Every structure is written in C-alpha cells, then in structure tokens.
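Annex B, item 7. Sequence and structure tokens for protein A, then protein B.
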Amino acid sequence: MIGDQPSNKSTQLKRNASVLLYALGKASFRVLAKLFDVSPTTTYNWLRQAAESLAEPVIEEKIKEIEIDER
C-alpha cells in the first residue's frame, strides 16, 4: 500500500464518487455513507482528505464583491 491510497479499486471508486457527489451538493455525509455502505466517519475522512489536497483558492485583486446565494 502506497501512502493513504486504498488498494481496493471499488473503495477508490466509492471515494471518488463521494467527493464528486458532495462537491456538486447532491448528497450529505450520511446519504453517501448509506449509498456506499460505509460509516459517515469514513465518508467525512474521504472528503476531508480530498479538501486538504486542494490548493488555497486565489481571488484576484480586481474582484471587489462576491454575492453568495442562500443555498
């Protein structure tokens, strides 16, 4: 096993699908856990690891205002 990467291909597929569905706002931790038959903690850890692997967002100086929808 290399680093934190799961050796099971089905686990990797579940992990990638969880990140995608969560990022699109289509599912919560618990829904993903039930869908992929894992614990909510496992789902949380998958998403946390994915988030930590991303770089900090860069906001250009020319942007003065951002509007956020209620969602």
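Protein B:
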Amino acid sequence: FRRAASRGGHAPTAPDQRSDESGSPRGLNFFVPRRGFWVTPLLLDLNFLVFLAMCLSGVGIFFPDNVDLLHWGADFAPLTLTGDYWRVLTCNYVHVGLIHLAMNMYALLFIGLFLEPLAGSRRMAMAYVLSGLYASLASLSVNAEWIAAGASGAIFGLYGLFFAYLL
C-alpha cells in the first residue's frame, strides 16, 4: 500500500470505506436523495429523524406512552375533531416504537425502489401524502377511541398505486 501511494498511485481502500457513485458509503445510499430518487430517501430520513427526536426527548424506544404519542402528533378523534386537524398529517410520521418504525421503513424502502422510478418522484410524493391523509380519516371514522400513528396507511396507498401500474 505504501509503495503504490508513494509512486503517485492510489492505495486501495478498505471494503468498509468504499462508496458508491453518489459518494455515500455503501448501505447508506438509500438515505441520500439524488436526481430521480429523492422522495423515498426523504421520507425515510424524515421518519427516522422524527423518531430520533422523540427518543431524545424521553419517549420510550420500544413502548412509548400514549401521552407521549399524542404530544408528538398521533391521531386521536377527540383531539383531531375538536381543532387539532393537523394530526391527520403528523400521525403518519410518528411511530409506536422501534419495531414499528423498522417494519414501516422496510416496506417503504422496497416499494419506493420500484415505484419511484416507475411513477416519478412527484406522483409518489403526492400518493404518499394523500394516502396517509385518507388513511388517517378512515381511522378516525372506524376507531374513534384509539390512538393512531405510523406510516402504514400511506405505505399501503403506495402499494395500491404500484398494483394499479401492474394492471
């Protein structure tokens, strides 16, 4: 390695230091927005950052309290229908523990890998937001006494859009 570097050549890098064409280390490129693939990484990052902020503020990592979830914007009919209308949007980014977050982000990553190049970034972003809003409204009408949080409704909407493209 030293001889190659001293002769003006480049010393090979260790496998764990290699990067892809975007310059990010391997394994992290799904979190880096780039041209033609920016919605999926942005949504992954946003969900992870909200969860990190929740944990840093003292919310339980595996079993958060209901009060903490409500503080961070979970959907709950008595609050949402009496003026906290923003909860139908914010509840799509609040997750009920690390396992819940991991499963939702796993599903989002794999549908995003296929759907974003197929549908385009703008359509995917609109589908995510609108599916999340409609899922929140459906949850309010069916489960008025439950606290709802998570990206599952938005992600199911993305899978529905993908299914429509398949047909």
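Comment on protein B: The mean pLDDT is 87.
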